[in-house]
Amino acid sequence: MEFSKALISWYLQNKRDLPWRNTKNPYYIWLSEIILQQTRVAQGLPYYLKFTETFPTVQTLANADEEEVLKLWQGLGYYSRARNLHQTAKNISQNKNGKFPDNYLELKKLKGVGDYTAAAIASFSYQENIAVVDGNVYRVLARYFGLDHDISQPKTKKIFQELADNLLPKGKASEFNQAIMEFGALQCIPKNPDCETCIFNNSCFALQHKKVDQLPVKLKKIKVTNRYLNFVVVKDISGNFTLEKRSENDIWKNLHQFPLIESSTKDSLEKTIQNIKIKYKVENIKLFNEKEIIHKLSHQKLHIHFFEITLETNIENSITFSELLTKPFPIVIHNFIEANYLN
């Protein structure tokens, strides 16, 4: 248990002052953990503060309109997190009297809550003796103990979970879990960690065997799909805009976008412009970016162009620019609007 004691001691001296560490309220801890999935603390903190200010209780979040939740989430990505967040808030408010489950197994039943998030809430709010295992934990344990199991394999999770659970000092679940995650975030970082100042530099397997840059092992490579998206800003004679809402089970579900022409292969700009002319029966087309905008997602690489046309008639169900600004958009479209229509 020397490892655990040293880790907690390091944490108490080096931990960042973060608002979700000053509470045991499961709502705030759940909110922080969902926001911080796939997100760095520096990016997630402003969103956490906005959410807790706008929705101070799980009931206020449950009562919100989904578009309001998505608008507040705009820019964080992985929007299924926001939709699950809203659905879970409704479930807790309507079916559980506004109270979160108080144990790991029941927490795991909530939509959008997996093993890691359930363990975090259970240990931080209720001191349940269960260890968290995330990317930081994989890295710290793999390097310190010299574990070369492929962390992309599901069976590896069990090995790391059992080790972490055995290392966790009973009654100190919150301190240990936060300590090991913070150590991975600040000290045992993925690339070029400062091993000379590390408290474990005399006992770390990876450092002693010159394997710091080789551990943890992750062999599975993500296949990236290329998609070619051409957004057409359609304005009518009154200067109003046409929007579409993405409803399919695809990226950006329930977010808004300008009318889209998508192709599976890269077409020439000339061909795309000709397609727009034919579809909308117009001659004048404005091209905003001759060079495509590249927007990378976890499994997809988006190649994006923006165009604008103005029709000579009024469009049914069009909206004003002020109304447009209230809608939740993918960040790449939000940035386009900001750069081209707000300046």
Question: Features of this protein?
Answer:
two-stranded antiparallel ribbon, alpha+beta, Nucleoside Triphosphate Pyrophosphohydrolase, 15 helices, Endonuclease III, domain 1, five-stranded mixed sheet, 343 residues, 44% helix
Outline the fold blueprint:
Layout: H1 2-14, H2 26-35, H3 41-54, H4 58-62, H5 66-73, H6 80-95, H7 104-107, H8 115-126, H9 135-145, H10 154-167, H11 173-186, H12 205-208, E1 225-235, E2 244-245, E3 256-257, E4 260-263, H13 269-280, E5 286-287, E6 293-296, E7 300-310, H14 321-324, H15 331-341
Parallel strand pairs: 1-7
Antiparallel strand pairs: 1-4, 2-3, 5-7, 6-7
Helix pairs in contact: 1-11, 2-3, 2-8, 8-11, 9-11
Cofactor: [4Fe-4S] cluster
Keywords: 4Fe-4S, DNA damage, DNA repair, Glycosidase, Hydrolase, Iron, Iron-sulfur, Metal-binding
EC number: 3.2.2.31
Short description, anyone?
By secondary structure, the protein is of the alpha+beta class. The protein has 15 helices and seven strands. It folds into two domains: 2-214, Orthogonal Bundle (Endonuclease III, domain 1); 225-341, Nucleoside Triphosphate Pyrophosphohydrolase (Alpha-Beta Complex).
Give Rg in angstroms.
24 Å
Q: What is the CA-CA span between the terminal residues? A: 59 Å
Regarding CATH, which class of the largest domain?
A: Mainly Alpha
State the total count of DSSP E strands.
Answer: 7
Helix content: 40-55%
CATH topology value of the largest domain: Endonuclease III, domain 1
Q: What is the CATH superfamily label of the largest domain?
A: Hypothetical protein, domain 2
Q: What percent strand?
A: 5-15%
**Which consecutive residue ranges, at least 5 long each, have pLDDT under 50?**
none
Mean pLDDT metric: 96
The main pleated sheet reads as:
5 strands, mixed
The global form is globular
CATH architecture of the largest domain: Orthogonal Bundle
Order of helices and strands: HHHHHHHHHHHHEEEEHEEEHH
Pfam family, one: HhH-GPD
Keywords: 4Fe-4S, DNA damage, DNA repair, Glycosidase, Hydrolase, Iron, Iron-sulfur, Metal-binding
Domain HhH-GPD: 35-186
InterPro entries: A/G_AdeGlyc_MutY, DNA_glycosylase, HhH-GPD_domain, HhH_base_excis_C, MIG/MutY, MutY_C, NUDIX_hydrolase-like_dom_sf
